[in-house]
Specification:
Blueprint: E1 2-7, E2 10-12, E3 18-26, E4 30-39, E5 46-52, E6 57-59, E7 67-72, E8 77-82, E9 91-100, E10 106-110, E11 114-118
Parallel strand pairs: 2-11
Antiparallel strand pairs: 1-3, 3-8, 4-5, 4-9, 5-6, 7-8, 9-10, 9-11
Length: about 120
């Protein structure tokens, strides 16, 4: 069994910063990619940032230059540093991982979500 546990959400003023983390635990053979998604009220879940096993990162245009995704492979943890936050960044942020639970089987897992609210 694999779990993804997120932390770090909260309320911040526009222009402020927040850092999210997501720790994967359980029967993990290797992690191929870890992503951060977000879902605002009344909107579809959208991909915010991705980091793959080699360290390559990708970002949605709306967060480029403001958000940074990073990963600690030893801790199976992914981070999202969010700077210059805007009210439109308000959403529930979800961690996603595509990983191998053994040498043959690959699975997808989601975290429970953490609320980020940007408001004055």
């Amino acid at each position: 069994q694999v779990q993804l546990v997120e932390s770090g959400g909260g309320l911040v003023q526009p222009g402020g910063s927040l850092s999210l983390s997501c720790a994967a635990s359980g029967s993990i053979f290797s992690i191929s990619r870890m992503d951060w998604y977000r879902q605002a009220p009344g909107k579809q879940r959208e991909l915010v940032a991705t980091i793959i096993s080699g360290g390559t990162t990708m970002y949605d245009d709306s967060v480029k230059g403001r958000f940074t995704i990073s990963r600690d492979n030893a801790k199976n943890t992914v981070y999202l540093q969010m700077n210059s936050l805007k009210p439109e960044d308000t959403a529930v942020y979800y961690c996603y991982a595509n990983l191998r639970i053994d040498s043959l089987r690959r699975r997808d897992y989601w975290g429970q979500g953490t609320q980020v609210t940007v408001s004055s």
